[in-house]
Amino acid sequence: MALELYLDLFSQPCRSVYMFAKKNNIPFEFKKVSLMHGEHFGDQFGKINMIRKVPALRDGDFCLAESIPIMIYLAEKFQTPDFWYPTDIHHRARINEYLSWQHTAIRMYGSKMFWLRLLIPKMIGMEVPKEKMDGALEDLNNSLNLIEEKFLQDRLFIGGDQISLADLVAIVEVMQPVGAGLDVFNGRPKLSAWRDRVRVSIGTELFDEANRDILGAQEIMGQIDPGTLELFKPKILRFYY
Ligand SMILES: N[C@@H](CCC(=O)N[C@@H](CS)C(=O)NCC(=O)O)C(=O)O
How many Cβ atoms are within 10 Å of 21's Cβ, its own excluded? Predict the structure, then answer.
């Protein structure tokens, strides 16, 4: 049985897993789980990942949740080039440092900005109050500043001269607010140059393909049936509003 990856490319961690697997020619079956249609709440997906989040992996009888362990599993199983997750202790520690930091920083604030700009106004029937937007933007900018000043500094990539899992995990989160129409690269030449390097390293075609859904999100979400929003409205408002 082919290795299966359960993905929805609107999701940031799914995009990193997808790009990693494709870039490294890892054979897999793409199992689409539409979050918008609540497919992750179905019985079938529950058997793969009881956390009910994507991405998820099934390799024979072995199921795995969480994008970072999934990519590390793929890296180890398929012996991908060392630069993705270097064996050198300090080098790997630098990558791990970013991978740990990002969950409660750029991931949280980039996602929040996406929901506040795109769907929360539809859920609450009005624009998000300015103070809330300003606060969210400040948090997001603080995380972007840290990516530039702490994690990149004057390096080409987060881990040094070559791309790694850290850049992959970073770029997908940085692109999420872009999908909601916020150009986070505006006025940030260092971040923009890094984005370009990551795009070229991944391959422009693959990068653009993986980002097609998220960059079309404004149009797609604009057409969404309001009934669909009811599926996740309580959770999203509790989490991001
Ligand atoms: N820490 C997890 C995060 C997974 C996650 O939050 N996935 C979101 C999409 S970005 C999801 O499936 N959400 C569905 C839900 O919460 O109902 C990872 O890195 O894989």
Answer: 23
C-alpha 171 – ligand 1 centre gap (Å): 16
Q: CA 216 to CA 226: how far, in whole Å?
A: 18
Closest residue CA from atom 9 of ligand 1: 11
Domains of the chain: 4-80 (3.40.30.10), 86-240 (1.20.1050.10)
Would you write out the chain's pLDDT as a tens digit for each of its 241 residues? 899 999 999 999 999 999 999 999 999 999 999 999 999 999 999 999 999 999 999 999 999 999 999 999 999 999 999 999 999 999 999 999 999 999 999 999 999 999 999 999 989 999 999 999 999 999 999 999 999 999 999 999 999 999 999 999 999 999 999 999 999 999 999 999 999 999 999 999 999 999 999 999 999 888 888 888 888 899 999 999 9
Centre of ligand 1 from the C-alpha of residue 104, in Å: 13
- Residue with CA nearest ligand 1 atom 3: 66
Q: Residue 65 in contact with residue 53, Cβ under 8 Å?
A: yes
**Parallel, antiparallel, or unpaired: how do β-strands 62-65 and 29-32 relate?**
unpaired
Q: What is the largest CA-CA distance in the chain?
A: 52
Pocket test for ligand 1, best of 7, 8, 11 (most atoms within 8 A of CB): 11
Distance 11 CA to ligand 1 centre (A): 7
Look up the pTM and report it: 0.97
